[in-house]
Amino acid sequence: MPYRPTRRELLALALALPTVAALDACGTGGDSGSELSKDPVTLRFTWWGSDARHQRTQKVIEAFQKAHSTITVKGEFKEWNGYWDSLATTVAANDAPDIIQMDELYLASYAQRGALLDLGTTGKYLKTADFDANALATGAIDGKQYALPVGLGTYSMVVNTDLLTQLNIPMPDDATWTWEDLKTIGKQISQTGGGKITGVQSWGFDAGGVNIWARQAGASLYDDKGNVAIPPQVLADYWRYLLDLAKSGAAPQPSVTIERAGAGLDQSGTATNTSVFGTWWNTQITSLTKASGKSLKLLRLPGEAKSAAPAAYYKPSMFWSISSRSKHAAEAALFVDFLANSQEAADILLTDRGVPANTTIRTSIKSKLTGTDKAAADFLDAVKVSKPPRVTPNGASTIEAILKRHTEEVLFERATPQQAADKFIAELQAEIKAAS
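Now predict its structure.
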């Protein structure tokens, strides 16, 4: 078989571009003084997603082209797995699309090597006044806005209210509850459920849970320079809590937890109605409700009442970015402005890419949302958030694979929580250092 480079090798190739690429972009229309061309312009726009997303996005493109007859937008859409290989290859070949749908895990990797344009230089055509400062901060690195959030989510606890009613267990008060309260009610549910239902679906496999735990302890996963900053004891306490959930019976046995973690959303404890509580991003409630066929409700996270500042934060579903090498940065900014700020685009996209980050747009489409989509939008508006965590540093995009491995070690008691914490911090820091 012919050799096929790995995604990491492709990304490394893409990021081997000289930093001066960003400087070169200033001469290709990327500065604030650039003007729209009087001649016809063709833009390339790449995104990942389902067929339904492709169809919606194509309708937005058509609407934009109708309003701007001299600009043609060519779509290049792919599935998630092939998307990043393709993007890394085109960036390395100096042939990147003009407009890029970007993910938080890879943002710093591309931005800090000069592959993305500072959107702060495009203010003439791209407006951000209707974006909350905490939302804009999710796409900023070292004071420069490399990405504009498209949709937003926030970490939440999803509860199956039908199962609570069936078991005759009252709903907890999410304005005051603690992590110990969750453990207590989880044990009660598991005991009442007769072995068929557990109280809590264990977590520990995504960065959201670790970020929340660290922030509630007054710490952070990374510092401003992009180094791992979470205190080992805080991380050890996190894994100790997850181990306690399993040992107490509040959560399933480790083998069940690991099996569910490796499967899709529809195989989770929440979706299969075998766990009453589970941590999820609020925007996942629609898919979970469809899979479970039950009534689900979004709750604020335990521990928030005792936290000095809200640990909850906005997480972008994805971003819009512009290539620093685009020869038509003004037109690209105009198109991103249409995607992010126009009512016409909003009425087509609705919540396909998450609850809109633009607050004016979010308000305008609420009347068109129903059921769980509306619940997700209402929850986002109601929850208290603070400044988001630092963007995932260059080299740390493998964090969730590292987390998963150490969570498994702790749950199967092949490592103590403290041992896992020490090894996790050292391993993640080594990844970051290797990429610098």
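The chain has two domains: 7-151+317-376, 155-312+395-435.
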